[in-house]
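cache lookup: miss for this entity combination. No prior model stored, computing from scratch. Input as submitted by user K.M.:
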Amino acid sequence: MPYTNRQWRLATRPVGMVKESDFELAREEIPGVADGEVLVRNLFLAFEPAQRGWLDDVKSYIPPVQIGEVMRASAVGQVVESKNPEFAEGQLVSGMLGWQEYFLTDGTPGPFGGLSRVPDGVPPQRVLSVLGGTGMTAYFGIHDVHPVKEGDNVLVSGAAGATGSVAAQIARIRGAGKVVGIAGGPDKCRWLLEEAKLDGAIDYKNEDVLKRMREEFPNGVDLYFDNVGGDILDAALLAMAEHGRVTMCGGISGYNAEKPPPGPSNIMQVVIKRLTLRGFILFDHIANAGQAIADLAAWSASGEIAVEEDIQEGFENTPKTFLRLFEGKNLGKQLIKIADAL
Amino acid sequence: MPYTNRQWRLATRPVGMVKESDFELAREEIPGVADGEVLVRNLFLAFEPAQRGWLDDVKSYIPPVQIGEVMRASAVGQVVESKNPEFAEGQLVSGMLGWQEYFLTDGTPGPFGGLSRVPDGVPPQRVLSVLGGTGMTAYFGIHDVHPVKEGDNVLVSGAAGATGSVAAQIARIRGAGKVVGIAGGPDKCRWLLEEAKLDGAIDYKNEDVLKRMREEFPNGVDLYFDNVGGDILDAALLAMAEHGRVTMCGGISGYNAEKPPPGPSNIMQVVIKRLTLRGFILFDHIANAGQAIADLAAWSASGEIAVEEDIQEGFENTPKTFLRLFEGKNLGKQLIKIADAL
């Protein structure tokens, strides 16, 4: 049976701030499902700041999205037709399904992974948030890159975002002495204190960030988990304790700059304070995904970790929802729901 | 017996580039040597880029030099009068003796260390260069901060300077696959190739630094030992291999800036390439100085490490000699000779 598949494709490479018009809506007929193939109907699409980097024609850890290609994104969907014995109709699956309504595959792992089954009893969107790439990124950052130590003074930027919110809470669970999150606006800061149960919150839109860092950490920051780069990283370098560690997860503040913005002018603090800055990406740690997901599932099920998902609706709103990340609008994981499970 | 001691004292805190007039020449009478005291006549004074940082009134790893204080510096001298049984007249000693002709002490270790005996058979100025702070800094950077690994592709900036020249050569001795130094001008680059026996040299004054880095290291730099910061650090981030290590020893390019210059705009390479940047200072490693000096003494005596010392003369030329560091004039360790040993 034929299906009409709507897709958001990359129309032009964004210059500076990404715009809705950098994507174009296209239609494609899927004539049917051949032997061995699986057709997935996408239910939720996931958005991450790192996707912005995939739009630039530069060498990076994965190839850029090409002009005319469906925008690359992880998503969760439901098998609507299967001629592959590995997948039954109705099965919930996740993978790099892209900004489209349907995903046709023969089920073999592609360059960005194949289809994964959504575990029973888990709300499907959860595999895109705390049990997905952003949750696992937080997990490996706190456990493996610079493992949190008992009593550490921990600072997390982007702390109301999908990765930061999980990282900050894992640090709390793993014995940090104090955990303070940085986020934009009083609502997010309230969430950090009341829901995520952090020890402090800094509102970078309304407070003097460096002054507040120093108030919260008079003896300095032992571990800074950075998702934003830019001025907040620069301030944090001044607020670090001697021998402090900086886990560099991302730098959303610069992702839409036309050319790389100036780096942290306080970089010599790395020498003066004998800091260690370490960058990482999820792919390098994915072999340990099983343990990460097991722990994250237990913590989110028990409520030890508060999980927030910002769910927009309507496939036509996909590019607009992507922009929310860079406008600082999302609290927790940014998702869009484009269909109901059957 | 009374002595007239000439001293260079800090007159004003430098703004931007340090100037000779930031120091003033003063005279002080030393009426005599009391019981328990030792009077040292300074022979050689040592200069390091880090001394520039001690002139700024900011919190750092050691307190700033105060206005009116003798400029802090390591030096080597000879005991000319001793009423302390620990030190005999004629003994060669080193320590933080300062920019002055005489140093009077009761011999007990001060905040920046006491007097150390110069080992027999070692030219006294050597304890300020390869066997001194800059040589040991190179040693600990290459051995402890990010230990060089067999086959590593190693890049060193400030490679004709006191620390860089030693670091690059230790990396060569310790099994690096390839060692390339960055220095300013053809004379220094020739020295790197012919005397220090490095595998390559990049002249940052006359070559496209990033292009040359990529030519020398088509597979990327595994270990970058940075003494300069600024644009060269920024370029190096682009030239690093995945999982590369950056040993951050200093940033001379920015030491005379009126305010901290912009940091490396390529800082997000730390995430993309999963780099580790680690800063250090010598003080943290000083407990292992014995092994460092033993190895450095053996390598320099055997000629495995080429040691270069740039020795100016005349106490009146002390501030001018300090400026040579920031004018890029010195090849190897910058020293000044202010008296002959008796």
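stored under new cache key. Chain B has a mean pLDDT of 95.
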